[in-house]
Amino acid sequence: MTLRIGVVGGGQLARMMIAPAVELGVDLRVLAEDEGMSAALAATAVGDYRDADVVLAFARDVDVITFDHEHVPQDVLTALVDAGVAVRPGPSALRHAQDKIVMRTRLAELGMPQPDWAAVSDAVQLQQFLDDHGGRAVVKTPRGGYDGKGVRVVSLATEADDWFAALAEDGHGGELLVEELVDFRRELAQQVARRPSGEVRTYPVVETVQRDGVCAEVIAPAPRAGERLTAVTAALGVAIAEGLGVEGMLAVELFETTDDRVLVNELAMRPHNSGHWSQDGAVTGQFEQHLRAVLDLPLGDTSPRAPWSAMVNILGGPTSGTLEDRFAAAMDDCPEVKIHTYGKAPRPGRKVGHVNATGDDLDDVVYRARAAASFFQD
Amino acid sequence: MTLRIGVVGGGQLARMMIAPAVELGVDLRVLAEDEGMSAALAATAVGDYRDADVVLAFARDVDVITFDHEHVPQDVLTALVDAGVAVRPGPSALRHAQDKIVMRTRLAELGMPQPDWAAVSDAVQLQQFLDDHGGRAVVKTPRGGYDGKGVRVVSLATEADDWFAALAEDGHGGELLVEELVDFRRELAQQVARRPSGEVRTYPVVETVQRDGVCAEVIAPAPRAGERLTAVTAALGVAIAEGLGVEGMLAVELFETTDDRVLVNELAMRPHNSGHWSQDGAVTGQFEQHLRAVLDLPLGDTSPRAPWSAMVNILGGPTSGTLEDRFAAAMDDCPEVKIHTYGKAPRPGRKVGHVNATGDDLDDVVYRARAAASFFQD
């Protein structure tokens, strides 16, 4: 029987599942937030993912539900499970990607290396943490943050007053997460795929370069990642995937500290920007792998297809016209680079596409990916 | 502006254009023969490609028309051109892929190496050709043949009587094509991409293995293809693409004779089964390349991504159930092989999918592709 996957959310991650779904012959159906979203081609429904009735109706005709993002509320997720729908990753795993305090608490239980952290419910507690950590720290709203949103470096507890006030207002008596400011050498990411029946596969650890809190570039594998680092991050990824019961793709964002430790920064339970290189750089790209994992099919080979891959995001795009207007120049200059666009109108800071380059020489691969991406920006 | 391509025909070739179209951000629209065709996901219209009104209406909202097959009649093609539609490849090029006598005549004018051939209008002429060529020859209907259909090896002119009778009946006073039976060592294929502004790129020559007149396997590049053979087939492909004014992908099917000549067997002006390996084995797959070519965008790098690639067709499929029922076994055994299915119900002899394998060792690559394909057949 044709396998049917329902994806909640119509963004670029759902869009990039379309290509492997077509090739495998998987019937991919998307519940999009609006008409004309990135994944519109596969959209079979448009509706509010916070409405259990909408999501339940969408789920009726598929074998498994998965996600373009982690924002589907727990009550909707549990309603799906109660109705007998296969939800992958499931609500109890997704909680850890939805609430950073839940994640920190669980990772601590699992003995995972993390920055020092605390859940603080008022400015007094926050100030105490600041005093204990050299007077500066990172404050995060536990829920809803992404791409640098909901993250603030503070040196005075009063700098989080607005967030405390908002928490008080929402009536849930919530807390903010505060984390030590990690002295890191660079950021890494570890991709892991896990299927319900237990099979796990890891991708090579990659280096991610963030600009203004947004992923700008990824190099795979992470340069100068020796056997030890590679083994440590893979083991860490597997431990988290298993410990949290992840089904599908997991991305573990990591700090490599100046004193050679690896600390968990963030988690994402879906294909992730730090894994886009794998579309062209690995035998099995993360989008195909996610489909296989949520269908509980055997996972694909995660080996790199070339010694080096580089991914460079197209952020914002050209100030006039569309990305396609720049195709001729980019393709002419970089015939070997793979261009991926998301069907989104250019807008400052918006992720509207990315390019992947692969090859034998690291500097050359990075140079070519940057060159190709530059054609899509002013 | 978003680039829009209209594909006439909803088969697997149109289907396999979807993945690169999504990634590039090209709006691919398909005029399908029926509901539920291979390329149904991108079908925006269903209708008869022999009806000029249907095709003209479909063409109204796209930038360029291209094809899943070569069967669109010349009068429909010229109606498109007359209406100002960009048609790639155009009617004057496509004629050579639609009529084998037109092809043979033009290739002769271009000085291309071919089997001895003649256009014969009755059994007397056919018998004369047989007498001149050792008593056996290949007779072909000039139009409408594919995958071994419309091709017959004869040793008596009367064996083509039914075809002569059919020609007489259709009132066009047509001829049959007769060709010498070539003593060949193996069959090869040369893929070439050409865009309207003139840029041409060749793929490495491949070896194709036919069974019962149908492509069964492809190895890329062709084993033991030295520099000379590679240069000869590439030059031949370019000469034909330029001589015939091809726009898009061209496949030149070739015989490598036992006395080391290369002769043109057939042409296809579209992505072709002999080029499917390039989806996973080349930097730019033939489907992406076709999109770039018909949009007159700079062509992509055609370099192989691995020393060897093998493509094995899934012919017929399992006698019970669907291809997807076999995914678990195939993926478990061959995690590194890429599976492509066409969304077609299994039926004896039908091409329902293919698998691609890549790697450093030829024997291993072929073995793995065959092994993976075998899981999809009884």
TrEMBL record, chains A, B:
Documented EC number(s): 6.3.4.18
Keywords: ATP-binding, Ligase, Nucleotide-binding, Purine biosynthesis
GO MF, any single term: phosphoribosylaminoimidazole carboxylase activity
Amino-acid positions noted as binding ATP in the UniProt annotation, renumbered to this chain: 100, 140, 179-182, 187, 265-266
Subunit structure: Homodimer.
Family classification: Belongs to the PurK/PurT family.
Protein name, per record: N5-carboxyaminoimidazole ribonucleotide synthase
